Write a sequence for this structure.
């Protein structure tokens, strides 16, 4: 990754200001990494701003941001309109945790900013940010946090312990408690963040969910079913869900005996159906999701499909499995 870090540092130092953006409905991995990177950039005496999410962030991220701001640490969030006032010919946009233009928080910025730097840990997709001057995609990494932690180590810099704590929480969520996408380097990164000041008690507080959400998700799991031997699927009720809800349900189903692959299907917008897929590794969840327009890792993948019903998306998954 040294080449990535050299290029990233060069680009940060050679631009007037830097805009950071992750995917829609950001999570602790994507947005936590944006916050960490913003503090690294500030230490280089550069102006940096984070695109504020248009839609409500998930509960864990809200807790993480609150924990940071409660310690009087400023996060330079700006709305898209405010950020547009900062853009000039020497502005750099860094996109974290997605390579797909349709998934970024605000796609308009891709057209308005000339220099774009992309860092992602998902599998290569047919959909890319074409204008990127540099793209780093490494699906062997557990999370963007793992990459940012290694950037900290490369620079030999320190961050406030609460930001380090949020980073560790983000990595733990993205690996489902170090059960997915986890390598020796993932554990080394967790140890490094702990050594740098991550607080395990605060981390657990950030990761705690509500009793109501727990019951709601498990009521959905009650209606899950086999679609093929060792393939398990849950159709969520006809409501709007966060991507995190779908991911947690898929994670939980993978704990069932004789389940190798799990899928959660539910509406994430009025006209968009989301799919979260998990695998123990014998079958590639990423390949199945790629065949229906999504993507991801062998063990962790997802898709977002417009203009289809939940039943139609389930049929697409069944067809992809048979093929």
């Amino acid at each position: 990754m040294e080449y990535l870090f050299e290029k990233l540092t060069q680009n940060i130092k050679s631009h007037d200001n830097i805009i950071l953006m992750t995917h829609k409905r950001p999570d602790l991995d994507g947005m936590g990494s944006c916050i960490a990177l913003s503090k690294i950039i500030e230490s280089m005496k550069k102006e940096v701003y984070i695109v504020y999410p248009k839609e409500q962030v998930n509960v864990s991220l809200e807790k993480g941001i609150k924990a940071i701001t409660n310690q009087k640490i400023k996060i330079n969030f700006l709305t898209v309109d405010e950020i547009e006032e900062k853009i000039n010919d020497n502005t750099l946009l860094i996109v974290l945790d997605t390579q797909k233009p349709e998934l970024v928080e605000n796609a308009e910025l891709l057209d308005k900013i000339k220099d774009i730097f992309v860092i992602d840990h998902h599998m290569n997709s047919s959909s890319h940010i074409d204008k990127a001057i540099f793209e780093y995609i490494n699906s062997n990494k557990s999370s963007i946090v793992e990459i940012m932690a290694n950037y900290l180590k490369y620079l030999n810099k320190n961050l406030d312990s609460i930001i380090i704590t949020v980073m560790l929480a983000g990595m733990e969520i993205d690996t489902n408690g170090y059960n997915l996408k986890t390598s020796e380097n993932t554990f080394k990164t967790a140890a490094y963040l702990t050594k740098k000041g991550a607080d395990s008690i605060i981390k657990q507080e950030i990761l705690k969910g509500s009793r109501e959400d727990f019951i709601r998700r498990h009521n959905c799991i009650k209606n899950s079913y086999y679609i093929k031997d060792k393939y398990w699927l849950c159709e969520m009720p006809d409501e709007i869900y966060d991507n995190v809800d779908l991911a947690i349900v898929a994670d939980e189903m993978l704990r069932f005996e004789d389940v190798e692959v799990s899928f959660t299907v539910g509406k994430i917008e009025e006209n968009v159906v989301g799919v979260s897929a998990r695998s123990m590794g014998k079958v590639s969840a990423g390949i199945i999701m790629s065949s229906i327009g999504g993507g991801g890792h062998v063990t962790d993948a997802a898709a977002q499909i417009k203009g289809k019903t939940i039943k139609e998306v389930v049929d697409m998954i069944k067809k992809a499995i048979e093929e």
Remarks:
- The two ends are 36 Å apart (CA to CA).
- The longest strand covers residues 231-240.
- The chain has two domains: 2-207, 215-322.
- The mean pLDDT is 93.
